[in-house]
Amino acid sequence: MGDEIMFSVRNLGKSYEGNAVLRNIDMEIRRGEIVGLIGENGAGKSTLQKIIAGVEQADSGSMEMHGKPYLARNSVDANRKGVGMVFQEQSLIKNLSVSQNIFLGREKNYSKLGLVDWPAMNRDARSVLAAIGASDIPVEKRVLDLDFATRQMVEIAKVLDIAGGVSGQGSLVLMDEPTSVLGDDDIKRLFVELGKIKAAGNSVIFVSHRLEEILEVSDRIYIFKDGANAGLVDKAAADEAILYEKMVGRSTTGAYFKTEIQSVPGEEVVLAAKALGQLGTFKDVSFELRRGEVLGICGVVGSGKEALCSVLCGDESSDSGEIFVKGVKRRFASPDRALRRRIVCVPMERRDEGIVGILSLAENISMSNYGAVKKNGFISSRLQNALARKWVDELEIKCSGIEEHAEYLSGGNAQKVVFARVISCQADILILNHPTRGVDVGAKEEIYALIRKISAEGVAVLLLGDTLDECIGLSSRILVMKDGFVQKEFDAPAERKPSQVDIVQYML
Fold first, then answer.
1. Which of 68, 77, 251, 382 fits a 20 to 30 Å CA distance from 94?
2. Hey, where are the domains in the chain?
3. Mean pLDDT, residues 351-375
4. What are φ and ψ of residue 126, in 5° steps?
5. 5-248: CATH superfamily
6. Are residues 353 and 347 in contact, defined by beta-carbon separation less than 8 angstroms?
7. pTM tops 0.90
């Protein structure tokens, strides 16, 4: 292996609707190495991986694999050539089973005389999942019925099996934010598997906005900025501060979570839960949320925190207990009902739940607040466009224009569109479900400042942080959940934050 080049990219370029997202990209991947790829949202990381995976086609440039010209017509073609990708927004077909997804495109291995040997496919799927420590995932179950983190493990298992199953000179595994919704134990498990596929002579391009992960798993690190190469560093010569500065173009502020402007909550209770419960997910949850407060909820996946937020924003129903909004008992049959009470949510799955990809930025931003863009009972394009321009400027959303379809935005810019939509509703209560998942460190600082701004203006925030540090840093009070129950409550004023150790002991 050593310095043998497995995969190379030369002068690669790609544009969408006249907007250049990749410009003259050069990259070399050695056999048996993990290459980290970092950059701000919109830097072109995901686009490059999609081109390599056959999902998109480049406008210019060339690629080689094992010294021969490489071009993938689609993802199945890429799989056959030894390239597999774990997508940031997931690519599983939700109405198919786990085993069908794992062996999608390879069904002929289980077919004879037009019939599929389902027991054999299910048996092999169990072996694939067991290899990454996920043998508890039921292979006959539809992906639609699994939670997001479990689906991520299925996708990872699928791609790692492709990498291990292609014989010859090694395979290339592309990973776009694979850890974004995984717990610490699953992340450790994934890193062990990455070490195994690297040792077997396969290579990995690993994209993450968590710089500590990049430094932990990568041998070399490419930095992209505005669609172009901005640097290449060896792991030994890098630290988080160096990577941040190369990626963002400035040094980190040292006040990442903006605690110096953390406001003191008001006295008015705007949302309260009393003995709230949902069968099988959480039980007997009680809390009060005050005007201008950021209340963080910590817990591992399955602790009940996600289901609690779904009930509070009207996505799901409770089976017991009560919800009060400004002292009045309420029950929400849908998110629209919650919105009428000025409760709105930034969902974790922004592509599925936060935006409508085929609609423009202007249409997405006004979607939850049509009253502000109507004139004489009809939607006014002038008002709608003015609202969109205001938020594109204020949140510095990178786009070709307010007419651009939301599906073409990078993950971070799509998240900013979601924020623009929910903030423009002038909500009193904002539920943030992993608001910075898949967002680069520069954009995270901007979102943290935005959260500080809206809480100072009196908006109450219920926060499920993307990391424990984020939840501690942003919150003025923290609830810790485990096995569906609230185990502990912590005050978290700016001058006296609880430590991770304080909180973790009640999570596990």
1. 77
2. 5-248, 259-342+427-507, 351-410
3. 83
4. -65, -40
5. P-loop containing nucleotide triphosphate hydrolases (3.40.50.300)
6. yes
7. no
